[in-house]
Amino acid sequence: MTSSTPDALWASQSLRLLRPASVVCEGLSHGSRGHRLLDNLELSVGVGARLLIASRPEESAPMLLRVLAGLAHPSAGMVRLAGVTRADDSAAGWARRVGYVGPEAGIYPWMTPREVLDLAGRLAEYETAERRQRIDTIAEHYRLGTQLDEPVQRGGSSLAERVALAAAMLTDPEVLLLEDALRAVEPEERSRLLAVPGRRRTVLMTSRFPASEAGLVNQVAFLRDGKLLVHSSVKELDARGLTLSQRGIEALAGVITIDPQRPGGSRR
Amino acid sequence: MNRMRTLSWMAIHEMWISFRLIAVLGLPLLGGLLAIVVPPDLVGVSAVGSAGFWYAVGVSVAIAATAGLAAGTLANERRRGTVAWMAVRAVPRASVFMSWFVAFGLLLGIGIALGSIGAWLVALSHAEAAPDPVPYAAAIGATIGMGLLAVAVGLLAGTFLPSRPAAGVSVSVGAVVLVIAIILAPGGVPSPIGGIGLLSHLDNATRPLADGLRSAGVALAATSILLALGARGLERTDL
Fold first, then answer.
1. Nearest CA of chain B to the CA of A7: how many Å?
2. Closest approach of chain A CAs to the CA of B100, in angstroms?
3. If 0-12 CB within 10 Å is exposed, 13-18 middle and 19+ buried, where does residue B16 land?
4. Which residues neighbour B95 within 8 Å (Cβ) at sequence distance 6 or greater?
5. Pick from B121, B8, B115: which is nearest to B61 by CA?
6. What is the DSSP code string of B137-158?
7. pLDDT at A10 over 60
8. Sorting pLDDT into bands at 50, 70 and 90, what band is B119?
9. Closest-CA residue of chain B to A91
């Protein structure tokens, strides 16, 4: 079951009870024995989740996203996103179903946003008419109108990052991976852009500043030495009086205890 | 095929914007001009032999520099996330690798061909009788094969190394190999650098067409092996 499953099937109550997973990691490992960022990781994320992943060491969570995006190769294990494995490199498979935005925009600065979006549409193998229609829609949502035909470098890294997100959203992906994305964008605008619509879209994100993702996520996960220690809802965090922050998530995972008298907390 | 054409066009456009296109096309042309600047009686018995030698020197510099540019370019593409941008859109990394080979190889090939026309025209202006163009053309063909091999070496280095080390290694290896090719007389065991050797010793070549074809064949075979290694290496690299 994936989020691309037809609406009629989603309407069935039994299906909703099944809570289909959109992102599945089984026995995922990365790195050598001495420096293992992911260690036999098991993770299942339901369709429609907005999950923030934190970790110790801090490199583990971004590495998980890079493995999920197919940019880094796991030494063991497998991943399945939106019902497809990485082996499926057809445009209708991976290219349209999974989007990734990293800390680097990764686009040529001489290109205009329209050219970037057009290239993304071409690589996803959309017909010309559909490509144009998608570009118009996405340009409006990401407020690229006035800058659509100017080189990205004129708008600086803020524009480059917005265009990178727009290009990722062009295909209306079922799974969106955000690795510390849009840091050059103003905080309010960033929150607006990262509040991606779609009840069946699953968003996984990592952030150097988890507190800045308040309101954008409804689940948190914590990895310690490459293993999943906790995967819980933000409500659980709230119920325990913890804030959405690195320390709050670590406290939820039981890695540190937070004494109200000593806000610094102590590490276990 | 459409995707490959799009990627290759992007690579050429990026080279144009960053002035690398001018360098890759222009250096072999400057090599051709070397034959004009240097007096024909300095090296070689015939006018073609002299023009060939100086063009071999000039084009060797161009080939080594292009290998360095290719290495630096691919390493930089990896570092700034452009390859990752393509990879997350299910573009095979081998396609990205090959698109850069097509861009560099095509431009270097055109540059060598145009430069060789310049050097040939210089030879014609100095020759007493009309020279036979076949040995010269065979040497140029083999030199283009050598150029493609150098681009493949550069891209392979750029697959695994950071930008500056990759460029440094490619230029150094290219320069040493090409100097050896210019110094050594052609013939004997066919080698991918035979084209440069043939070009720089045209007066002494006994079987220029056969030697040129063999060298071009060996260079293309070596190029295809390096391309396969590079494409596979890029597929296995973490971006």
1. 26
2. 15
3. middle
4. B3, B4, B7, B86
5. B115
6. HHHHHHHHHHHHHHHHHHHHHH
7. no
8. confident
9. B90
How far is Cα B112 from Cα B129, in angstroms, rounded to an integer? 25
CB contact under 8 A, A90 and B90: yes
Q: Which of A107, A110, A123 sits opposite B3 (nearest CB)?
A: A123
With b for 16 or more beta-carbon neighbours within 10 A and e for fewer, the A77-88 pattern comes to bebbbbbbebeb
What ipTM score was computed for the predicted complex, to two decimals? 0.85
Give the pLDDT confidence of A113-153 residue by residue, as tens digits.
999 999 999 888 889 999 999 999 999 888 888 889 999 99
Classified as helix, coil or strand, A267 is strand
Q: How many CB pairs under 8 A join A and B?
A: 65
What's residue B13's pLDDT? 93
Name the pTM for this structure: 0.87
Check CB contact under 8 Å for A164 and B90.
no
Q: B-chain residues within 8 Å CB-CB of A104?
A: 80-81, 84
Task: Give me B52's structure tokens.
Answer: 């060939």
Q: Do the chains contact at B6 and A122, CB–CB below 8 Å? A: yes
Q: What angle do CA B87, B170, A71 make, to 5 degrees?
A: 15
CA-closest candidate to residue B226, choices B146, B119, B120: B146
Give the whole-angstrom CA distance, residue A113 versus residue A166: 9
Which residues fall within 8 angstroms of residue B147, CB to CB, at 6 or more apart?
Answer: B59, B62, B63, B66, B105, B108, B109, B112
User: E strands, chain B, where?
Assistant: none
What b/e string do you get for A117-146 counting C-beta neighbours within 10 Å, with b at 16 or more? bbbbbbbbebeeeebeebbeebbeebebee
- Best B79, B80, B85 residue to mutate vs chain A (most A CBs within 10 Å): B85
pLDDT tens digits, one per residue of A208-248: 888 888 889 999 999 999 999 999 999 998 898 888 988 89
Looking at residue B31, what is its pLDDT? 87
DSSP A147: G
Nearest 5 degrees, angle CA B61-CA B196-CA B50? 90
Does the beta-carbon distance from A106 to B14 stay under 8 Å? no
DSSP letters for A210-241: GGGGTTT-SEEEEEETTEEEEEEEHHHHHHTT
Put simply, whether B3 touches A (Cβ < 8 Å) is yes
Locus of tokens 């801090």: A58
Would you state the pLDDT for residue A100?
Answer: 93
- Determine phi and psi for A189, rounding to 5 degrees: -65, -40
Give the Cα separation of A262 and A240 in Å (integer).
17
In angstroms, what separates the C-alpha of B91 from chain A's closest C-alpha?
A: 7
Residue of B nearest to A176 (CA): B88
